[in-house]
Amino acid sequence: MNAFSCQSARSFKSVIWTAGLVLLAAIVLAVASLLPESSPLHASAFVVSLAGKYLAYAMLALSVDLVWGFAGILTLGHAAFFGLGGYAMGMYLMREIGARGAYGDANLPDFMVFLSWKSLPWYWCGTDHFAWAMMLVLVVPALLAGVFGWLAFRSRVSGVYLSIITQALTYALMLAFFQNGFGFGGNNGLTDFKDILGADLHAPATRAALLVATGIALAASLLAARFIVGSRFGNLLVAVRDSENRTRFLGYRPDQVKLLVWIFSAMLAAVGGALYVTQVGIINPGEFAPANSIESVIWVAVGGRGTLSGAVLGAILVNFGKTLFTAWLPEFWLYGLGLLFICTTLFLPNGIMGLWRPTRKNDPEDITPEVSAPEGEHP
Amino acid sequence: MRKLGLACLLAALCMGGGLGGASARADDFSGLASPQFDDVSASITALAANGSAQADAALQALETHHLFSGADGALFIRAGEVCQNARTGEATTCPEEGLKPVRVNNRIRKALAGVQAVRELSAQQPAERIKAAETFYARHDAAFLPALDRALSSEKIPAVREKLMQAHAATVLAQPPAEGAQAARLKAVGFLADVGGLEARGLLAGVAANVGEAPEVRHAAQSAVSRIDWHLRIWSVLQNAFYGLSYGSVLLLAATGLAITFGVMGVINMAHGEMMMIGAYVTWLVQQGIQMTVPALEPFALLIAIPAAFVVCGGLGVVIERCLIRFLYGRPLETLLATWGLSLVLQQVTRSLFGPTNIAVQTPAWLSGSLALGGLDITLNRLAILVFAGLVLGGLMLVLRRTPLGLQMRAVTQNRRMAALMGIRTPKVDALAFGLGAGLAGLAGVAVSQIDNVSPNLGQSYIIDSFMVVVFGGVGNLWGTLAAAMALGMGGKVLEPTIGAVSAKIAILVLVIAYIQRHPRGMFPVRGRGIES
Predict the structure, then answer these.
(1) How far is Cα A76 from Cα B333, in angstroms, rounded to an integer?
(2) What is the second-level CATH architecture of the domain A2-356?
(3) Per-residue pLDDT tens for B303-317?
């Protein structure tokens, strides 16, 4: 326990620093984007939406780190919650278009008119209200995570099995959303948004505000996550991660502990997805692709698993690399990403954050103890 | 008798064809010179009934576009510059002008084919007579009834008789109901009900829906239709079951290798799909190589590709284990990430070397085509994959049960530490197990290259399904893998016709997820005394 408290004391500081830096960067960029174009400090709309995208991805990474780094659940399907949050926001943005769509139907989104649907499906009801849509952003992924997690953790599905079924979950969702009859625009997804809460989505001021909002959301999530892992509950989480059976024998309920953090993490990812959609302007079933979920895991691994700030750092760095790579050497991006996976797991098991404090073997303060093989089991 | 039958034939065709104005010079040939297709068609029937040498010659000339009409209804068979009077067979000089070819359209072709079939009914070879009977069955044209009657009265061979009776029954039913024909029609209904098939169903449904029909005939037709429907449904279920088995065998091939590595090392190899992809590319390379060096061996290229793919992928697997996996022991989840990275690299390498588009892997002649088994249509390549999967599974069982390596692998699967204490070199077993798994993936790649597109993305489309099979079946038990592969393959194909392919896939995924919740270690978990992690 002593070792852990040292660790949490350390992560307190870095997380606060990270949250502050994220917020500062978002505000600076937002202000820069509002400067006149002639100014040398002007930030273009492209840069602003790119930064917003990175921060939204960072939220996804943070949510993955919470469950992987602290509860030992390697999720290969977190993009499912990210995507669901995005779709919930997308529904609201679709309804905001109103009669300005290509078909000019005040009530139905374009793709429904195109499919010659006569009325909105029931699950679209109320999505024209921002508050209701925001509730959907939080509640739908939380419900899915709750049901899925309750079943999985209660029957002690863990390790690789759990990873594989989380992947199956997001894959099934992807297939479902690809279908036109599902009512979410099929292949094309939801796009062509006009405005949010009456403000033009393409106006610099709106973009700046969204960037700042994302920065605030990320900083708040960081602090909330730090609060959770630093609390007594956080101790329990790490105990479950390191030896689920011992924790169970001590009288705790690992399934409930895991379920709580799992649901919270799903909601974080969903908020990230919702913010992502407002700034990227499109959500389609491709977001559910298993590859996306696995990529978000590597962001965490690069930054440093179980450090919170590492997740944010990793997400931003890897995505920045991706932007550069795909612009300059598009064929080599997959080589880069693949080698990143391999090299990180081989040479940087503690990620970039681990570089600051090289860990020795049997270091009691090792910030990322492995999901230890239980006694008598193969590794 | 013969004359009477032909006269009936003629009369029936005249009624059916709606022959308008017959020409003044009313011999059998005259219609051929008419510009009206109706007249031509009537004339064809008449000539067929005529049966003289001239009539046959004229029909043959019509078929081969050698028949010409001159002025005043004269008809000539022209071969190059030489002409022949079609009516008399005398050689004459071709008229300078006014010679027009007798035009042939689809209706005329059909009439000619009918004449041909009538002629074939009296052919020497039973096979030709069966063919003719099948033509009549498909056409069920009342005009041929007399010809059929005649053929039936003289036919001796049971198989041909059977076909003729079917054609007869179909033809009888195709006619509008008449007074006193009830008994014959009832018999025909009974006959067609036994024949089955979509054709018979269509005819019977027509009879059942016809209000002019006698009630008992309609009733019989109705029950015959439902009987045929039932049969068709059973056949379609069987057909789907075959598709399911076939898909299941592909899944089995893809998943066995995965199950081996997972069982022995507790590692999910995310690059497994890429090993399949490489196996498929090896198949293509072997085919290309053989084509260029020893074309005589080309039909056997696929057989040569099987060991080649196994060796290449197996070797690659050992290299991967030695260079990558062994540094990640004790960290199964990170191995998963590393192999995922590897899969990305392998995909991109293939894309750089062979291009991103599909490559054309050939199917040897002995694997093309299909086998009709009752109402089943079994394609040979899928059948071959089914057999191949069985052989691979059997071979793998032998390796696991009867070889020292198999013994060691099973020991390491069951208890790694104990196996190590007994002197088994677990790192060696790991490397070989990984190589074996990769080699099996290569074999799966050879099989898949015969039924699917081969592109750098090939592995991606199989990997999730293979994972499902492995977690569904349970680890360390090949029977579990077999059962899971077949269950998922069949389940998907059985659901497909009712809810659609994509929904079936989703349903299967959800079912497996739900099943794993109840049975976290799959259908056939390895039982042990240790606490599971």
Answers:
(1) 10
(2) Orthogonal Bundle (1.10)
(3) 999 999 999 999 999
